[in-house]
Amino acid sequence: MNLFQKKRGKYNREFRFRKKDGNYIHIEENFVCLEDENGVPYRALGIMTDITEKKEAEETLAKIEEVRKKEIHHRIKNNLQIVSSLLDLQAEKFAEDNIYDTSKVLKAFRDSQNRVISMALIHEELYESKDTSTLNFAAYLKKLTKELLRCYNVDSSGTHLGLEIEEKVFLEMDTVVPLGIIVNELVSNSLKHAFPDRNGEIQIKLYRELNVESNTGMGSGNRNGSSTTFTLIISDDGVGVPEDLDLENPETLGMQLITTLVDQLDGELEVNRDCGTEFCIKFEIE
Q: Which residues form the PAC domain (predicted)?
């Protein structure tokens, strides 16, 4: 039972009341004391209200908030483990070299930093949206690409980066994290290597197609039922990727990450070298 709270002669308290059937109800009591000319209370006027539904709603909201906090901590833990794994992979690459090139080390650190930023922006979007299950991928992409341009010192008169994506594309976190890293890797590659002596253009497109009955054979097995096929295209009009690029056995850490994460999405990856470079990634969401 709460203690009486006095405010200008008014009193309020809440307490539980057990009914005959053994169940409890929550009661809120509000009353005011009437005093005589000497300030001595002689009568109380008040009302008692059943606030059981209100209390139950508050308890439910508190439990939801607790679950939300646990989910956020769980996702942060998972993403920190991803960061740790990425750094381990980077360290293994350096371990293979007998001679360390300072410039390569600095570039590797910047690449690792951008990968961390791609995941940090996810948590920023989650915090602003108050939703731990899905994220507006369009808003996230705008922030991610803006940050990449800043990291590589690309000003408004330099290389242009265009986005063609619906304003509200909400994806689950298990899809957003790998997609964010993929976009980070491919856009970073274009900014670093596609335009050695000139400015150019980078395009990111994402569109979807609803499949009423899906039986595409993507991934490990066929899928039946309603699903949505997403197509992510990242292209540039630069010098192009090396002709000997082998997607089955990539040599660079960035391409290894891309192919691994596309497999994680149970998707398909294609490269078009006709005009610059175009990476096309298709994946399904049920």
A: 11-63
Number of structural domains (the chain) is 2
**Residue 80 belongs to what domain range?**
57-285
To 10 degrees, what angle do helices 173-189 and 102-129 make? Answer: 140
Same domain as 112, residue 238: yes
Q: Is the pTM of this model over 0.85?
A: no
Residue 129 and residue 249 in one domain = yes
* β-bridge pairing 201-211 and 160-165: parallel
Do 12 and 141 sit in the same domain of this protein? Answer: no
pLDDT of residue 6: 46
Same domain, 249 and 124: yes
Per-residue pLDDT of 92-148, as tens digits, reads: 666 666 656 666 666 666 676 777 777 777 767 766 766 667 888 998 899 889 888
Q: What is the pLDDT of residues 171-192, one digit of tens each?
A: 988 898 889 889 988 998 898 8
* Same domain as 199, residue 79: yes
Which residues does residue 11 pair with via DSSP β-bridges, in sequence order?
A: 6, 31
Tell me how far apart the alpha carbons of residues 144 and 181 are, in angstroms, rounded to a whole number: 10
Note whether 255 and 242 are within 8 A (CB). Answer: no
Residues in the chain: 286
Among the residues of the chain, which ranges form H helices? Answer: 52-95, 102-129, 137-151, 173-189, 253-264
Residues 90 and 225 in one domain: yes
Distance of CA 169 to the CA centre of its chain: 12
